[in-house]
Design brief:
This protein has 834 residues and is of the alpha/beta class. Helix content is 56%, strand content 17%. It is built from 26 helices and 24 strands. Helix 1 packs antiparallel against helix 6, helix 4 runs antiparallel to helix 5 and helix 15 crosses helix 16. The longest helix is centred in the first third of the chain and has 40 residues. The structure holds ligand C2E and calcium ion (2 copies). The site of ligand C2E has 23 residues, from strand 16, helix 17, strand 18 and strand 20.
């Protein structure tokens, strides 16, 4: 083999092109120099023996056509048998004829058969030329003055043939170095060209010498030489084919290892498949389509890039209809899954090599696709497992309803924040009256409210380290690096954001939250501590009516006690530890008793008898007032029913907490309770404090009207301790006012108190209301109240609050002795008016 030539491949940058042209100029320059300076007697044009010249040129054409192509690292190198005509030419024709025939024969094949581009053609012709003149020079020098047919001339011819090969090898190495990005490409090309090339060209030269001798002895013996030549050519071809197969097997093995060795990520495996197939089949472009998940990539000399996935997979190339040796530009194979194709691989643009893609390539591609399908399948499974694991992890750390982090994640994040920041704040927020939403509008509405709140917090607090739903209507926020101002500012922003009403199931609800703030700076506690402090502050905030409170250690003791009280009370209500005491109200005019007030007591097994003043407030702050009031109503109404059944016509008065008046469902619920108890609404008196009316007068007045229309009697409790002006009373649909005992108890000794009582009585009467005086502790007060015109009285002097069972016996005693006792006593205080 004497010559190699370089084939076309993908376009390359202009700078590389320029360097290749410089190389061509260098080769041509060297050839010109050798021909004009060293071979002074050799002309550029043929000498004028057209018959021999044509024969030789034809010989070079045949030699170039019987070429064996090899691809070295994406660069095709073609080995031809040009040594044979060359060596023959040395002995048979003039030097200029040999050189020009060499160039002309080579050019003819490159132009018409291989259709090489200008740069390729120029390169190959330049290196042909340089090789030819160099070989000619070596031939001349090696031959010296020796005979044309001698031992020396044979060696000189062989040396000359080797020079052609070496020049070609060096030139190709140079051009590969210029064009290839691989650092080992030139070394590989050089080894290949010099190693196998020089040995083969020496052998080819020897073969030509034998042919020459045969021609000299008897040219008719040439047929034997031709047969031998054909055999050698075929043997060489077979060898190259074998080499190729071996290469393919090795390539496939490498490919399988590559695809199997990546960590099981679909994209990583896909990338290995793309680059692996590109290298294995030595093609310009590889496209991989996958159906599940739909994804496509293309891989070419510029790298791997995503690609628009096709609607349907491309049609695979058919191997059966492909004739041996038939060549195409592109091949497609399907990647088979368990039941149906899961993707397709398309390769196109054979790199470097002259021909296109063949049957052998299809088989190789199919084999690679088989391995690729398995690798991709495994990767997909692994991806799914990972996604599942991630989803599980997400589920374990997030609240399903709002999508916010849950308590677990909040703890984790907060712990990290506390470890990293000297300052941090935890905000705990609890929605006000959320239970009422749930109870009245149903859980769907409650969930909707929670979702809206979650969404608002998420949008508002993008800078917070964590916004979590801890459970129920409780949310928590941790702020990294926040001091007192930043934390309170954040709490205010939350309150503002939540104050926009929420539309749920066609109802517009005002969502308020109580926010407790705990600061980490200088404390050094853990997340649990901070959360507990925020909790204490939050309960305090509830007392501030929808406000914000910052934790302070001074109030903590008290708050902690209240918290534990709330917990006990919750259990107490459930365990039936509450009892009712009843206190009668009697008419001052005739001592008649028409009603009793129900007063709750908590008979705690741990705390003993707890008076309502100690737990009503806590119940109001912790949402327990709802169940508590319901229990009192149910119990009191049942008792009322029993008295009615026993012939005792006693109304019961039940105290309402201010919060109950703001419960949108209360009126409806009360109707149900009255029905269930079988007690007409007129037998129920609801006592409402002034404070309850003041916090949201519009709403309160509306609810009072609803209750009034339902037939319930209404009473203003503790009148006088509130801040309302008395004229305000006229707007209220109430039938009764109860003068607070702080005015009543000492009225006989305190002229101011008495004046107030007298004024209230007059005003109430003018407004058509009856007046009850509470806190009557002695007969003097009782008598004086009758003189002032108060309608009824209640107090220790008449009776302390007593269990229901004691009411009937008391009534008997009262009506038996009441007038008898009271009249003389009344007389014994004659000077009151004076
Ligand atoms: P209130 O509605 O003003 O109830 C009257 C309170 O005055 C009762 O205290 C009663 O025992 C007390 N009292 C009655 N006569 C006299 C007297 O002559 N002198 C003095 N010094 N006190 C007298 P109690 O039972 O401790 O209740 C305290 C407060 O607790 C009640 O004041 C009421 O506001 C609240 N409360 C009681 N039961 C309930 C209830 O079921 N629900 C609600 N929301 N609050 C209740
Ligand atoms: Ca009361
Ligand atoms: Ca009262």
């Amino acid at each position: 083999m004497t010559d190699g030539s370089v084939e076309d491949r993908a376009p390359e940058p202009a700078s590389t092109q320029l360097r290749v042209w410089a190389l061509i100029a260098l080769l041509a320059g060297a050839a010109t120099f050798l021909q004009t300076v060293v071979l002074t007697d050799v002309g550029i044009l043929p000498s004028g023996q057209p018959r021999f010249w044509l024969l030789l040129a034809a010989g070079f054409v045949v030699a170039e056509l019987c070429v064996v192509h090899l691809t070295v690292k994406q660069e095709a190198i073609s080995f031809a048998f040009a040594e044979v005509p060359w060596v023959l030419g040395l002995f048979l024709v003039a030097p200029e004829d040999l050189i020009s025939a060499r160039i002309a024969g080579g050019a003819a094949v490159l132009i018409w058969h291989r259709r090489q581009s200008a740069v390729k053609l120029a390169f190959n012709l330049a290196q042909f030329w340089l090789g030819a003149v160099a070989a000619m020079a070596v031939w001349r020098v090696a031959l010296g003055g020796a005979e044309l047919f001698s031992m020396r001339s044979w060696l000189a011819a062989a040396a000359s043939a080797i020079v052609i090969e070496m020049v070609a090898a060096l030139a190709i190495t140079a051009v590969i170095t210029l064009r290839s990005t691989r650092s080992d490409a030139p070394r590989l090309a050089l080894t290949l060209a010099l190693g196998t090339g020089t040995a083969a060209s020496a052998a080819n030269a020897c073969f030509a010498l034998i042919a020459l001798d045969v021609i000299r002895m008897d040219w008719r013996g040439l047929w034997a030489v031709v047969v031998l030549a054909a055999f050698l050519f075929l043997a060489q071809r077979a060898h190259v084919t074998l080499l190729r197969r071996h290469d393919a097997m090795e390539g496939l093995h490498t490919f399988t290892r590559r695809v199997g060795s990546t960590d099981l990520h679909l994209e990583a495996v896909a990338h290995e498949v793309l680059t692996g197939v590109r290298e294995l089949l030595e093609v310009e472009t590889v496209v991989l389509h996958l159906t599940t998940p739909a994804a496509s990539w293309t891989c070419d000399s510029t790298g791997i890039s995503p690609y628009a996935p096709p609607e349907t997979l491309p049609t695979p190339s058919s191997g059966s209809r492909r004739a041996r040796g038939q060549q195409v530009q592109a091949l497609t194979v399907l990647l088979h899954g368990d039941t149906e194709p899961v993707g397709a691989l398309t390769v196109s643009g054979r790199l470097g090599e002259v021909g296109g893609l063949q049957l052998a390539d299809l088989r190789l591609l199919e084999a690679a696709a088989g391995h690729a399908a398995v690798g991709l399948h495994n990767a997909r499974l692994a991806d799914q497992l990972r996604a599942q694991a991630a989803a599980n992890e997400h589920q374990a750390l997030h609240d399903a309803l709002t999508g916010l982090p849950n308590r677990l994640l909040f703890d984790r994040v907060s712990t990290a924040v506390l470890a990293d920041h000297p300052q941090a704040a935890v905000l705990l927020l609890d929605l006000d009256r959320f239970k009422e939403v749930n109870d009245t509008l149903g859980h769907a509405a409650g969930d909707a409210v929670l979702r809206v709140v979650g969404e608002r917090l998420r949008h508002l607090l993008v800078d917070a380290a964590c916004v979590a739903r801890l459970g129920g209507d409780e949310f928590a926020v941790v702020l990294a690096g926040a001091g007192p101002e930043a934390a309170q500012d954040c709490a205010r922003r939350i309150a503002t954001a939540l104050s926009t009403p929420v539309a749920v199931l066609g109802v517009t609800l005002a969502v308020d939250a109580s926010i407790g703030v705990a600061l980490a700076s200088g404390y050094g506690g853990d997340v649990a501590d901070l959360l507990r402090q925020a909790d204490v502050a939050m309960y305090e905030a509830k007392g501030l009516h929808g406000g914000i409170a910052v934790y302070s250690p001074d109030r903590d003791h008290n708050s902690a006690q209240r918290l534990s009280l709330a917990a006990d009370l919750r259990a107490g209500i459930a365990n039936g530890e509450l009892v009712l005491a009843y206190q009668p109200k009697a008419h001052t005019a005739d001592g008649a008793v028409h009603s009793v007030e129900a007063l709750v007591r908590w008979q705690s097994p741990v705390r003993g008898m707890v008076p309502p003043d100690e737990f009503i407030g806590v119940a109001e702050q912790t949402g327990l007032i709802g169940p508590l009031t319901e229990w009192v109503l149910v119990t009191a109404l049942a008792q009322c029913r029993r008295w009615l059944d026993a012939g005792l016509e006693l109304s019961v008065a039940v105290n309402l907490s201010p919060r109950t008046l703001h419960d949108p469902a209360f009126v409806t619920r009360l109707g149900v309770l009255l029905d269930q108890a079988g007690v007409p609404a007129a037998w129920l008196i609801l006592e409402v404090t002034e404070g309850a009316l003041m916090s949201d007068p519009e709403r309160a007045v509306e609810v009072l009207w609803q209750l009034r229309r339902a037939g319930v009697r209404l009473s203003i409790d503790d009148l006088g301790v509130g801040y309302s002006s008395l004229t305000y009373l006229k707007r209220l649909p109430v039938q009764e006012v109860k003068i607070d005992r702080s005015f009543v108890t000492r009225m006989v000794d305190d002229a101011d108190d008495e004046a107030i009582v007298a004024a209230v009585v007059q005003l109430a009467h003018r407004l058509g209301m009856t007046v009850v005086a509470e806190g009557v502790e002695d007969e003097r007060t009782w008598v004086r109240l009758r003189q002032l015109g108060a309608d009824a009285a209640q107090g220790y002097w008449l009776s302390r609050p007593v269990p229901a069972a004691e009411i009937a016996p008391w009534l008997q005693r009262w009506s038996a002795g009441g007038s008898a006792v009271s009249v003389p006593r009344m007389r014994s205080v004659p000077s009151l008016g004076a």
